[in-house]
Structure formats: C-alpha cells, structure tokens
Amino acid sequence: LNTITYAQKTAEVTPISEKALNSILEKNRAYYTQGKVADYIPELGKMDAKAIAFSVVDKSGKVYNTGDVSKKFTMQSISKIIALMIAVNEKGEANVFDKMGYYGTDKPFNHFGNLETMGKPLNPMMNAGAILTTSLISGDGEKPFVKVLEMVRYITKNQSIDYSKSVYESEKATGHRNRGMFYIMKNSGLISGNEDQLDNYFRQCSIEVTAEDLAKIGYFFANQCTRFDGDITYKNAETAKLIESQMLTAGMYEFSGEYSRTVGLPSKSGVGGGITVSVPGKMGIGVFSPSLDQHGNSFAGYHMILDLVKQYGLSIF
Ligand code: DON
After folding, report:
1. Which of 100, 211, 220, 275 is the most exposed, fewest CB within 10 Å of its CB?
2. Could you tell me the residue ranges of all domains in the chain?
3. What residues does ligand 1 touch, defined as CB less than 6 Å away?
C-alpha cells in the first residue's frame, strides 16, 4: 500500500484517450501469468488466458477501447447486478432484503455463508443471494432470464447479445454446489419455485458480452440508471445507489475491503474474467482478462483499473 501513489483529485490530468488506455493495458498485460483461468465450469477452462481488453465510457457517453475489444466472454457474476435491479424494481427493496442481508463478507463467492445458521444469504452478490434474487423475478419458465437478457441488451444498446448455450449446459451439469444452496433455500421457504429458477441463474451467468458492454453497464449504474446515450427509461437514483453500494461492499467478494482501499470504486467481477466499474456521476469502465486471482477476480483486470484510478484520481474517497 505504501508504494501506491495517487494523482490528486484536483491535479491536471491528461484526458482519457485510447493511447492512454493502451499504455495501461500493455503495462499490465503480463499479469495473466500470475493467475489461473476458471475451470470449475469446464467450458470456461477453454478461454484464451492471453486475451485482454480495456474499455471506458466517459461522462459524455463517448467510448474508448483498446485490446481484444471484440472478444466475447460470459458475464458470470456481473449478471447479478442486473438481476438485482430487476428484482428490486418489481418487488421493492424492502421485500428483497427481507430475504437476504446487506452484509460484506470474508468468504468466497460460492460459500454457503450463514445459510444454515441465520437462514438467509449474506448479500445478493454471493451465489446464494444471487440465486435467490433471480428466483424473485416474476414470470414462469425462462421469463426471468429473458428479462435479464433484455435488460443487458437495453443498457448496452446491443441487440446482438445472447447467452452461450455451451457454458450454460456446462454449468448446469456441474453446478451442484449452487444446486445445494438452491435446495437449502427452498427447504427454508425462501425460494418457492422449481429448478427452472436455478437454470435461469445459470443462463444469466452465460450471457456473452465484450469489455465495451461492461463499460456501458458501469456507466448506467454510475449515472442513476441513465443509459450512455442519455436514454432515461429506467432512470432511478435510489436503485443505482443500492446497486453501487452492494458492488462496493461485496462486488469483489472477500477482496472487497482491500479493493475499496486501493481502487475505491463500486465494481463487480465475474469468473469469465470481466470486471465492470462505476465511477459515480461520471464514467463506466469495463475490463477483460480471464486469468483470475485467488478470489476469482481478473488479475490483470484489477491492475488495469488500479492504474487508471491512480492516474486520473478516480477513487470516491
Ligand atoms: O455460480 C457460479 O459459480 C458462476 N456462474 C458465477 C461465479 C462468479 O462469477 C464469481 N465471480 N467472480
């Protein structure tokens, strides 16, 4: 920590440019060698560990891209913030958080947390709370998943976004730990539906995006649920505050505290190697590099975000 130097918030900084992003990317490219591509979902293990992309959407909605920006990867846990937004908009925050906590965590993303003892998931960012959140979205069969997919398409203004059937099938076939959580919550009455609801969670995790799509999602929550092109169909300052606060508290799981200290921005990672970042009232950042650290967060992705934050004084603190 002592070695980190930050730009002063008031200091003159060079404007964001693709050249500036590219030099940050190149500086951090080699970090992939220090991590590992997730393979507990077998299909994810096929990802190219060397792929790397960096994208920023500035306050005006202008997009800056560098690296493998056309490379698609699955959102995985980043889909949890979209599902939370939809559940809260439908049911109201009080009804959703009656069933789970606002807690931070010292536990990994797939930990059962206090499901057995207190009975409720710690937060909507860890798998248990996220599976429950998706089950709270109204509609039969695939409908809740389709709502998540449609919302991702809306936020990114990218109708070509779809989910990867092979990643979905792979997780459905191997996701027994998530299945265990699903049934514990069904047993305690928190979940009332059938396994279609778990499938909707697996499907939403398999939605394929690019780093640019993630930057646009970051922008959306940074700007009171206003889309990067100014569309205000879903504008809602309170929902955005809730999502950003959960991202800050638990979006990087047990690394969230240290991440808050070093980066200081609401962020959400996924084991596909993406991280989406909101710079409140300002920009969105999207990174991609599938080699993960011990917490399941993108190794090079974290370092690219950290360098951008240091260079431009972006921490909220
Ligand atoms: O449920 C799972 O394990 C995955 N579909 C998502 C986990 C995840 O992305 C954790 N984030 N870093």
Report:
1. 100
2. 18-312
3. 76-77, 109-110, 127, 171, 178, 205, 269-271, 296-297
Rounded average pLDDT over 169-174: 98
Instruction: Judge whether 253 is annotated as a binding position.
Output: yes
Distance 270 CA to ligand 1 centre (A): 6
Ligand 1 atom 4 nearest Cα: 76
Q: How far is the CA of 77 from the centre of ligand 1 (A)?
A: 5
Please give the mean pLDDT across all residues of the chain.
95
Residue-wise pLDDT for 147-171, tens only, equals 999 999 999 999 999 999 999 999 9
Amino acid at 5: T
Q: Measure Cα distances from 274 to 9, 188, 305 in Å.
A: 27, 33, 11
Question: What CATH architecture applies to the domain 18-312?
Answer: 3-Layer(aba) Sandwich (3.40)
Contact, 78 vs 243, CB < 8 A?
no
What is the C-alpha separation between 226 and 253, in angstroms, rounded? 26
Alpha carbon separation from 266 to 38, 50, 277 (Å, rounded): 23, 26, 6
Tokens of 117: 């003892």
Asked if 105 and 126 touch (Cβ cutoff 8 Å), the reply is yes
Q: What is the pLDDT of residue 208?
A: 98
Run of H or E residues at 118: none
Q: Are 278 and 265 in contact (CB under 8 A)?
A: yes
- Centre a 10 Å sphere on the Cβ of residue 295 and count the other Cβ atoms it contains: 17
pLDDT band at 232; cut points 50, 70, 90: very high
CA distance 64 to 260: 24
pTM of the entire predicted model:
0.96
